[in-house]
Amino acid sequence: MSVWFAMNVDITSIGGAAYDVFVRADHTIGECEGGEKQIQFPLGAKIKVKSVVQSCGGGATNTSVGFSRLGLNARFCGIVGNDEWGQNILKHLEKEGVLTDSAIVVEDEISSFSIILVDAVSGKRTILYSPNVNAHMCDPVFPREILRDSSWIFLNHLSDVSCVILDDLLELVQRKETKFAWNPGGSQIRDGFKDQLLANLLKQTDILFLNSEEAKKFTQSDSIEDALKKGTQAGVKVMCITDGSNGASITDGKTVWKCVPEQEIKVVDTTGAGDSFATGVTWAIVGGRDLSEALRVGMINSASVIGKVGTQEGLLTETEISKRLSSSTHEVTNSSI
Q: For the chain, how many structural domains are there in total?
């Protein structure tokens, strides 16, 4: 694949790309020893599939497409194989107006893929995945020089083998010309915010996204409120924590804004809810909107995505976001941190 340099990139999404297959079939919901719910199929049975939807997914793919639909000059930075799945992912990105000049194609290897089992009642899902070429997302292939023209970097969940690129990202965002939004994952959550490299990166973080469980573990906190306080004390400028059906919170270290979902939201598939929320919030902040409105934008974008099967079908455009903002009934409350 030819490589070309695009100037004045608004935002680059770094992370995974995958080919997703969403499957719906009759199943039961059981409970494992720890109390967690699980999708169950009878062993040895032959079960008829009710529906299959194929689409492109993965954190960097989802967020770069989301940013592009919202009018930003967006770039994808990730790895695909030179197989049919990888070619489809790149074609999809280009069709969505996403720059692929920092995409890396690995010859003779299989692109990452996921089989996603969706519960039709709750919209919740179980994901079977194979990282494949995403295991190569590491230092030797990280295109640092290309990324220097990006005003923002959005770092999606990284697998454990990908953490070595954090050193390069730290060097890049310390230049101050590049702003940094981040959704930690894998070993970063386990290591916690007191890890020296992560602590240094947090000091350069403009927006940090975590769900409630991740936030408590990452900051060694007992509550969302405590996690928000510790995150901003660690140097994060804006910290955002999602809490499923309970909504989300955002803070600048002085004030906490909270928002709950609108009533009667149709939940079809929760896959991609976090990516779409983070995309909306980041886009709003990049555009200079206040944090209260950024929170509402994230909630609106996420609600649209979970109303459809797949991670990108419901991603909204700037016009659609503006229209839904004007009719939104989201109530945002605030309090001192």
A: 1
Q: What is the pLDDT of residue 2?
A: 38
Does 4 reside within a domain? no
Is residue 24 classed as helix, strand or coil in its secondary structure? strand
Query: Three-state DSSP class for 228?
Result: helix
Helix 273-286 crosses helix 291-305 at what angle (to 10 degrees)? 150
Stretches where the chain sits below pLDDT 50 are 1-6
Q: What's the number of CA atoms in the CB half-sphere (13 Å) around residue 136?
A: 20
pTM: 0.91
The SS3 of residue 92 is: helix
Q: CA-to-CA distance for 249 and 228, rounded, in angstroms?
A: 9
Query: Given this model, what pLDDT does residue 7 score?
Result: 54
According to the 3-state scheme, what is the secondary structure of the chain?
CCCCCCCCEEEEEECCCEEEEEEEECCEEEECCCCCEEEECCCCCCCCEEEEEEEEECHHHHHHHHHHHCCCCEEEECEEECCHHHHHHHHHHHHCCCECCCCEEECCCCCCEEEEEECCCCCCEEEEEECHHHHHCCHHHCCHHHHCCEEEEEECCCCHHHCCHHHHHHHHHCCCCCEEEECCCCHHHHHCCCCHHHHHHHCCCCEEEEEHHHHHHHHCCCCHHHHHHHHHHCCCCEEEEECHHHCEEEECCCEEEEECCCCCCCCCCCCCHHHHHHHHHHHHHHCCCCHHHHHHHHHHHHHHHCCCCCCCCCCCCHHHHHHHHHHCCCCEEEEEC
Range of the domain at 106: 9-336
Residue 228 near residue 201 (C-beta atoms within 8 A) = no
- Distance (Å, whole) CA 57 – CA 64: 11
In a domain, 2, yes or no: no
CATH of the domain at 45: 3.40.1190.20
**131: closest CA among 162, 155, 108?**
162
